[in-house]
Amino acid sequence: MMRAYENIQFTSENRKSPRSYYIPGGCSQYLLLNGEWKFAYFNRDIDVPEKIKQWDKINVPSCWQLYGYENPNYTNINYPYPCDPPYVPTDNPCGVYEREFELEKKWGKVYYLFEGVSSCAYLYINDTYVGFTQGSHLQAEFDITEYVKEGTNKVTVKVLKWCCGSYLEDQDFLRFNGIFRDTYILQRPFGHIEDVEIIPNKKNIHIVSEGACEVSIAFEGEVLVQTQMENEFTYEVENPVLWNAEKPALYDVVLKREGEELKFRIGLRTIEVSNQYELLINGMSVKLHGVNHHDTHQYNGWCQTDEELRKDLLLMKELNMNCVRTAHYPPTPKFMEMCDEIGLYVICETDIETHGFLRRLPNVEYHFDMDSNDWPASTLEWQGEHVERMERMVETFKNYASIIMWSTGNESGHGVNHVAMIRWTRNRDNSRLIHCEDASRKQQIHNADVYSRMYITFEELEKAAVTKDICMPVFLCEYSHAMGNGPGDVYEYNEIFDKYPKLIGGCIWEWTDHVVMVDGVAKYGGDFEGELTNDGNFCCDGLVFADRSFKAGTMEAKAAFQPIRTSCEDGVLSVYNRLDFTNLNEYDFTYWVEVDGVKGEEVTLNLDVAPHETVTLEIPYTETTCQYGVYLNTRLTKADKEYAQTQHELSYKVEETVSEASLTLTEDQYHIYASGEGFQYVFSKIYGGFTSMIVDGVEQLAGTSKFSMFRATTDNDAKMRPFWANVNIWQGENLDCAFTKVYECDICDDKILLKGSLAGISRKPVLLYDMEIRITVGGTVEIGFNGKIREDATWMPRLGMEFTLTEQASAFSYYGRGPWENYCDMSHCASIGAYESDVDSEYVNYVYPQEHGNHMNVKRLTLGKLEFQSEDGFECNVSKYTIDDLDRAKHTDELHPDGNVHVRIDYKVSGLGTASCGPDLPEKYRFSEKEVTYRFKIVNLHKE
Ligand code: IPT
C-alpha cells in the first residue's frame, strides 16, 4: 500500500513557488522560530496519535539523532534501506515538533519558511493542515495567512525520517533528521514584491520584478540612483567596481513597495570561457583553488550556525582558497551571502545524489549501469522532482555573484532527467556555467559546460588538458581526497592546473571530518548501535579536523594555492604573482638567508607585480662554509597573516670534520662492549642492535635498536595494507609481525661486522643486510648499512632503524624539514631549518590513529644525550607510541603510550598519496628500491 510520502508525483502540497532569497525589512516582520520546541518521537509514523499527551523538549534547529532519538548512522553509497523506489521502510520514524508564536496584529500576508528539514515535513497551523514539502536542503515556503490569528498561534510540524525523496539524497554523510536549519515566519504587506532577479554584467545592473516599486542603488554608502521602476530597470554604472573573489565589491540594491524593503547585495562580474577554454572572470583567466563543503559539526551534525559557517569561509580564505562547491546540496542562503561578501567562487549543487543505485544488485561491480534504465535519472516518473530541485535552487540563489556554476547534483548516473534539468537551467539563466560530473562520466560531455571529473590521475588530467576531443574547461569537482594523513598530491595537481589553460582547477575532497564527539572521542560509522549498514571512518576525510584545527595536509593545500611561486638561480630570485586581480604590492614580501638554521637579516619589500606577472630580485649572498646547509626563505604576509612561504637551497661548502680514531671493542658470547670517557655501550650480537647506551651514567635506551620496514598504515595506505601487513594468509609480507635474524656478527679491525635479515611471519626474508659499525674513542657510533630487498617484494612503507629511548628524550631538537610533519609528496608545507619539538607536539590527532610525524631532510636530531647525524640526511620520526600501538588503535582513546620515546632514523619513507579514494600512489613516491645503502652517526653528548 503506497503511503502519500512514497508518491513521487506528490512531493509538495501548497508550497509556494520558489523565489529569490531575502529577509524583508521595512514594515515587514521576521519571526525566527529557532529555540526550544515541544517534541515527540515515534518509531513508526502510524503510531502518531491524534492528540499527543507526552512531550519532550528539543532545540530547533537540530538533528534528532543527537538528542537521543535513535543513533547516528554513517553510510556512503549503500542506501540504509532496501533499494525499492519509491518505497521506504514500513516502520518510518516520525518526529513531531510543536510550539507557539505570537502575532501582535493580524495584517497583510503571513508565510512559514523552512530552510532545511529532513526528510519531509507536514505543516499544521492551529491544528489545521497547511501543506507538505520534501527536498531536505531546499527552501520551502507556505502561505499561512488564512490559518493564523491575532495573538497566540500554534505551529506543528510532522517530520518523517524517510520519504521517496530520500532516494535522491543518498549523499556520503552521517544520516540525520529533523528541522536542521532556521525556520521562521514572515509577515508582509498585501501586494508585496514576490520575486526579484538582478542580472549584472560588467557595466549594468538589470533588475526584474513584477509590478511597480521604488528602487535605489548605492555603492559604499553613496546613493547612485533612486527611482521608480515598473517590471524592469537597467542601470548603467559609471566607473563600475567589479566583483571577484579577491576583491568582492558589492552594490546595494534596495526595492521598496507598500512600506516593505528588500535589500540585495549585488556583484558586477562576467563569467566566460575563452577560445582556449579558460575560465574567464571579468575577462581574466582564473584557476579555481577550491574545496568541497558539507555542513557538519562535531556536536551538532548538520547544524552549523551562521558564525560557524562564516568561520569556515574565512579559514578557506586564510588557506588561499578561492572556491567552494556546496557538496552535495544547496547551503543556507546566508552561506551564499557570505561567499559574496568574503569572496569565493561557488559551484552551487542541488540536493540530488542517487549513488546507492550502484549497490541495488548483489555481485555487481561498481559502475553506473545506466542502460538498465531504472536509475531515477533515467526514469521519467522522477523527472518532475529532478527539474524541480534544480529550479528551487536556481530561483533561490540566482542573485549571488559568487555562484559561477550550477550543478545538477552528485553521482547519480546520467539520464534524460539530467538533460531536462540542464535544459531548464540553460533557458532560465545563461550567465553561469552548468556543471554535471555525471555527464562527463557518461561521456556525454556536451550536455554540460565544463568537463568535470573526480579522482583522476595526473596522467589522465594531462591527457584531458591536451586532447582535442574535449573542447571545454576541465574541472576536478573532487580531487586530493584529504582522508587522514595527507593529501599527498595537492601541490602537484595544482602545478598541472597552472601548466594548461584548459585546466581550470578543482575542489579538494573535502573541507572537514564528519564525526560525532562522544566523551571526547571522535566516533564514526560502525560506532553506533543499530547501524544496519555503515562505511566506517570514510566520513573522516577532511582537510581540517572536525574542530577546524589544521593538519600538515591543510598547510600543504595552502602552499599549493599560495599567491606566489618563486624560483632561484645563480642568486636571482623570481617571484611570480598567481593572483588574478591583485598586485603583490598589497602584501609584504620578505626574504632572508639561513645558514645552518641561523637566520640572517630579513629584508621586507613592497613588490609591484601585476597579476600573472613575474619580478626578479638579486639576492646578495656569497658562498659560505657550514655544517648543514644554506637556504633562502621567503614569505608573503598581509596584516600579520602569512599567505605564502617558499624556500630555495643556496650553494655552500661543507665544513671538514676530522674523524676520530676507532675504539677497541671487547666481547663475550652474546655481547660487544664499548666504553670510554662518559659512555658505555652494549651491542647484542644475537639481536643485531644496541641494548644499552649509557652516557654520563644515564641509560639512554629503553629497548633494543632494530631495523624495520612497517608503518602504522594510513587511511591512504588501505589498499596496500594487505600486501604489507599480516591481514591475509596469502597476500602480505607481514611486515607488522617481522623477525630479525643475525647470521653473523664479529669484530674485525675494531669494527662490528654483521649480516642479518628481516622477515615477516611465515615469509622468506624480505631484507638481507650487512651492517658495519665503528665506534670512535669519543663514543661516536658510525653505522653503515647495505641492504637488499627481495626482488619480487612489493614497494615498502619505509626502511630504517628504530630506537627506543627513555622518557628523557621527549623534548628534542633537529635540523631538517619542519615544523609540520612531511613526506616526499607532502613537503611544501614544511621548510628546512632548526626546530625544537617534543613528543606531544609531534602527535597528530587523526580520528583513526595512523602513521604521522615524519620529518625529511634531517641532518641532526638531538634527544637526551644522543645526537643522530648524517651528511646526506635521513627521515626521522619521534613518537610516544610504538608503530604497533598506533596500528592497532581504531579511535584515539585506544592508544597506550608506554612511557618511552620511539625514534625512527629512516633511509626512506614512502609518500602518502590519496589512494583512500583517489589514484594509487605514483611510482616516484613509492619506496621501491631493491638495494639500499645508507649511513648515519650517533654522537654522544657527554659533558666534556
Ligand atoms: C565521492 C563522492 O562524490 C563524495 O561524496 C565522497 O563520497 C567522496 O567521493 C569520498 O569520500 S564517492 C567515491 C566512491 C568516488
From TrEMBL:
Q: Which GO terms describe its cellular component?
A: beta-galactosidase complex
Instruction: Print the keywords alphabetically.
Output: Glycosidase, Hydrolase
Which molecular function term from Gene Ontology is one that the record holds?
Answer: beta-galactosidase activity
Tell whether Hydrolase is among the UniProt keywords: yes
What species is given as this protein's source?
Clostridium scindens (strain ATCC 35704 / DSM 5676 / VPI 13733 / 19)
Entry's EC annotation: 3.2.1.23
* Entry superkingdom: Bacteria
Q: Which reaction does it catalyse?
A: Hydrolysis of terminal non-reducing beta-D-galactose residues in beta-D-galactosides
Q: Which processes are annotated in GO (biological process)?
A: lactose catabolic process
User: What EC class is this?
Assistant: hydrolase
Q: Which SUPFAM superfamilies does the record match to this protein?
A: (Trans)glycosidases, beta-Galactosidase/glucuronidase domain, Galactose mutarotase-like, Galactose-binding domain-like
What family does the database annotate? Belongs to the glycosyl hydrolase 2 family.
Provide the protein name: Beta-galactosidase
- Sorted alphabetically, which InterPro entries does this protein's record hold? B-gal_small/dom_5 (IPR004199), Bact_Beta-galactosidase (IPR050347), Beta-gal/glucu_dom_sf (IPR036156), Gal_mutarotase_sf_dom (IPR011013), Galactose-bd-like_sf (IPR008979), GH (IPR017853), GH-type_carb-bd (IPR014718), Glyco_hydro_2 (IPR006101)
- Enumerate the Gene3D superfamilies for this protein: 2.70.98.10, Galactose-binding domain-like (2.60.120.260), Glycosidases (3.20.20.80), Immunoglobulins (2.60.40.10)
Zinc-finger: is it a keyword of this entry?
Answer: no
